[in-house]
Amino acid sequence: MKIIKSVFTFSVVLLLISCLGFSKKEEVSKVPYKPSKETKVAYFASGCFWCVEAIFESVTGVEEAVSGYAGGFTKNPTYQSIGTGKTGHAEAVAVYYNPEKASFETLVTVFFGSHDPTTVNGQNPDYGTQYRSIAFYENDKEKAIIDNAISKLNKEVYNGKIATEVTKLTKFYEAEEYHQDFEKRNPNQSYVKAVSVPRLNKFKKKFPSLLKKEVH
Predict the structure, then answer these.
(1) Could you tell me which of 127, 128, 115, 125 has the C-alpha nearest to residue 12?
(2) Is 6 a domain residue?
């Protein structure tokens, strides 16, 4: 996204603009989210975090999704630094959820069902290590759930081609404030209209039973 969020076709390149072109002066403060004692957090990366955040926030039981960076080795990454592809980090999302309404298994289903896990280092139209597919885990139970999902999907759907990394979370860095709820706050932004909204609508059509009532 540092240069322009597409290398797919020349026409799409002209249509889409870099989210770095989104002025920080346009930032809008949001009410701080305060998770309850029962709230759990799961972490996923599958392309542009604007898209991923919007998808998870449409799911029943998800209280909040926060865009950020994870999976790398550089401390305190920024959007500009991860755009170089040299920090090791990927654009990721922290998903705050109520385990009584959404299980970790459900979130894994959402993750694999909302992107192409066979693509190495990217999701169309964004490519680079910062857009790679990663399912993070914090304990053995979560890792087993992810591994089982991959095994089943490789056998039944993807013919052993899943490229998703399964990585233990070490640190999640929250992204700059202007990235949070980007799709909701910028409905007319060109990338949002051309990529984020269609990706969300595709997910909603595929998993209507998982959606919050207000997003049907």
Answers:
(1) 125
(2) no
Within a domain: residue 26? no
- Of residues 13, 3, 9, 28, the one with CA closest to residue 176: 28
Provide the CATH number for the domain around residue 48. 3.30.1060.10
What is the spatial distance between Cα 216 and Cα 212, in angstroms, rounded to a whole number?
7
Kindly give the pairing relationship between strand 133-137 and strand 165-168. parallel
Q: What is the DSSP letter of 193?
A: I
| pLDDT (0 to 100) of residue 113 | 98
pTM above the 0.85 mark? yes
List residues with catalytic annotation. Answer: 48
Closest CA to 134 of 12, 43, 53, 16: 43
Angle formed at CA 187 by CA 117 and CA 184, multiple of 5 degrees = 70
Q: Which of 112, 70, 74 is nearest to 91 (CA)?
A: 70
Does some domain include residue 127?
yes
User: What span, in angstroms and rounded, lies between the C-alpha atoms of 145 and 161?
Assistant: 18
Q: What is the pLDDT of residues 196-206, one digit of tens each?
A: 999 999 999 99
Smallest CA-to-CA distance from 202 within 127, 132, 115 is with 115
Structural tokens at position 200: 């969300």
Taking residue 201's Cβ as centre, other Cβ atoms within 10 Å add up to: 10
Instruction: Answer whether residue 74 is part of any domain.
Output: yes
